[in-house]
Amino acid sequence: MIQLTGLTKQFDGFTAVDRVTLSVASGEILALLGPNGAGKTTTVRMLAAILRPTTGQAYVAGYSVTEHPREVRRRVGLLTEHPGLYLRMRGQEYLDFFGRLIGLDAEERTRRARDLLARFGMPDAWRQRMGTYSKGMRQKMALVRAMLHDPPVLLLDEPTSAMDPHSAKLVRDAVLGLRHHRRAIVICTHNLAEAEALADRIAIIRRGRIIALGTPAELKSRLLDPPVMELRLAQPTDGVAKLVSGLATVEDQGEDWLRYSTSDPQKINPLLLQTLASHGLGVVTLSEVPRSLEDVYLRVVEE
Amino acid sequence: MAVVAGRGRGTVAESLRMTRTLVQREIRDTLRDWRIVVPIVILTLFFPALMSFVADMALSWVAKYGEPIIGERLLPFLLMVVGFFPISFSLVIALETFVGEKERRSLEPLLATPLTDAQLYLGKTLAAMIPPLLASYLGIAVYLVGLYFFKGWTPPLILLLLVILLTTAEALVMVSGAVVVSSQTTSVRAANLLASFIIIPMALLLQGEAIIMFWANYDVLWWIVAFLLVVDVVLVRMGVRIFNREELLGREIDELNVASLWRTFCGHLRWKQWFFGLDEQRMPAWLRWLGTLGGLYRYDIPAILHRSRLALVAVAVGLLASVYVGYAFAYRYQLPPDMLELDLVSAETFAELPAVDWLPAFTIWGVFSNNVRALALAALLAVFSFGTLAVALLMAPLAIVFFFVAQAARLGYSPVLFFSAFVLPHGLLELPAASIATALAVRLGATFMSPKLGTTVSGRWLWALADLMKVFVALVLPLLALAAFIEVHITPCVVIWAFGG
Question: Is the pLDDT of residue A297 over 90?
């Protein structure tokens, strides 16, 4: 649904996006992560056919962003970094305006707009002037605008910023619902927990280049140190460290718990359990110490 | 997926529908801003009514002193003023169009719609123009109704049409210029500052129009309408060409990168070298030095002339027009026979030329420096007039020449001999040199109007400037120097030989 090949954008000699190559399939959510100024917004603007790539090519919903920008814009729903509403307009007028530009007929404009407003818990916004909206309402209205024509491709820049937890959940559920309906979605975000919860794949971008790309699990296993396992025993850990150190590296230990790292947990863990059992040591739990996407992100970006 | 495949997309109807949708939204938004609506209402209803009253008072007052003509001239003048005041708001609205939206961060969602650049530009232009223009027409109507009731005065239909056309053309000039400014700046503050380039000429124009109104020479106003319409076409075309959604979002600050501009300019000044097909290493130094210039004449100048061919055609058309103008004026303003007694031309005639104050010194340096100054001025004026004033500056002397050619013919001299003796010897070099320099100046000025897609205005302008400088130094100056020598030392001999006693 989205295919980028060597996509590059330069502004007066400054390279904002540098030979980005990636793809997003229908029903897939890709999260674009990166520090401020990394090139996320420029990439999204090129995908929305607002900016023209300096070199490289991007196809969105089957159309080239350089050769058929209007067709691309018809098929993309863009949530911009700032809601950018016309504050003197009412919700109804605003959505009607964008619906007309996209080419929806009057009945469909009204139906889609009312459905979406109801889904995001703000049916009354229809009659209100947008200048009276809260920050979260403005953000949701911008999202409604992006989803109004039910586009096959959605580009969402910080979709839940400025939202309270309830609204953020509504939006996350809506995004997951769109994945279910086979939409291709690109999310730019600084909210790593949200990216991990929503995204099928994650691309980390720095200085315009993609420096890591994969599923959250792949990125963790590829980019972090060997996983750390935590063993909780039914009795004190006296002498257990000696048993474990023959198979893995002991990282830390407490009264009834011990942490070790191993690069091959699938082989070592069963072996270790067997060893402990043969010594009559009861194991309460054995689990991997959770590692967050934040660890991956910080490591990759700081490198 | 409910994505619309595009109802009749690409058609004129679709284009109009998109533009109309944008215009409706913009106008609705404008009319909700009391800071715009209140002054427009005052200028539309209150001010014209006041003007009617003032006009009535003024007429009564001047009639007491037996000068009714002042009152008669005042009425059309005030008609123009009540028409102009509301349209001054179009400038404010237009300046804010793109850059205001950019500052409010509402531009990007709009740019992400299927609106084309032309639809965006035209939609914004029309939306900025329609409310003030309607207010202007309404203001004119209020003024006329008031005058009809106070004095029973109705304007001649042709005068009313003239004022309406003048008002409309002025509004379009201001709006199209302001929209260009708005789309090329990054803050409302910068746009307001740049608006001086619109306000000052418009203020001067209005003062001129006021004088003409009191003079009651409405023919001149029709010429002004025609001129404004040409400017409208130029500005709208320029706006459509240079408007580019990429530029709107790509630029965040109005930073003048002098070093980068200088590098670009220097890059354009370079040329491919040509060493006469010989081995450069085995050439003597002086020949190598000449060879360094060789490529300029072999490759660069022909290429520059080729890419300036449209401008050369424009100059050629201008020259032909100046021949016509010269002849036309010669038959309208005939010189008395004693002013052109060619039989009396002698060496002393040329020796006395330096005594004529308004002529340059009749020396090689005097003629040469005068021509260089004139062409440099033409290039400067071209920048501020899209190239038109450069052509006008070349046309003026040529029109004068042909004015005298025609006068000579009328007085019984051979026009061919007159032209061949007085102009041709040095004109063979001077005229092509001046035409080429003017054509490059035209290109320099016209760059603003029609930058090629995918290039920046500044990039194209620097390229045109570098081309102008190369041709000026390498071709025009040598030709002018040679022409000056001929004009001072050879042309007088030819004239005396042909006509003198």
Answer: no
CATH 3.40.50.300: does it fit domain A2-214? yes
The ranges assigned to domains in chain B are 12-250, 308-498
Distance CA A129, CA B465 (A): 51
**B23 lies within 8 A of chain A by CB:** no
Collect all residues with Cβ–Cβ distance below 8 Å to B401 and sequence separation of at least 6.
Answer: B326, B419, B422, B423
Q: Is B29 on the interface with A (CB under 8 A)?
A: yes
- Would you call B111 and A50 a contact, using CB atoms and an 8 Å cutoff? yes
Options 1.10.1660.10, 3.30.70.260, 3.90.190.20, 3.30.70.270; CATH for A226-290 is 3.30.70.270
Give the separation between CA B118 and CA B332, rounded to whole angstroms: 46
Tokens read off for B109: 């969602």
- Tokens 């059309």 — which residue? B76
**What residue segments make up the domains of chain A, in order of their start?**
2-214, 226-290
Which residue among B2, B105, B112 places its CB closest to the CB of A150? B2
Low-confidence ranges of chain B (pLDDT < 70): 1-10, 67-68, 250-256, 353-359, 448-456, 500-501
pLDDT in tens, A115-174: 999 988 888 889 999 999 988 889 889 999 999 999 999 999 888 887 888 888 888 888
B157 touches chain A (CB under 8 A): no
CA B148 to chain CA centroid, Å, is: 40
pLDDT tens per residue, range B214-234: 877 788 888 889 988 988 888
Query: Could you say which DSSP state residue A129 is in?
Result: B
pLDDT at B214: 81
Cα A204 to the center of its chain, rounded Å: 10
User: Is the pTM value of this prediction over 0.80?
Assistant: no
Residue A53 has pLDDT above 80, yes or no: yes
Distance CA B290, CA B299 (A): 14
In chain A, residues with a C-beta closer than 8 Å to the C-beta of B6 are 70-71, 74, 103
Find residues 87-106 of chain B whose CB sits inside 8 Å of chain A. 104-106
Tell me B360's DSSP state: P
Q: Up-side HSE of residue B240: CA atoms within 13 Å toward CB?
A: 10
| Per-residue model confidence as pLDDT tens digits over A168-197 | 888 888 888 888 888 899 999 888 888 888
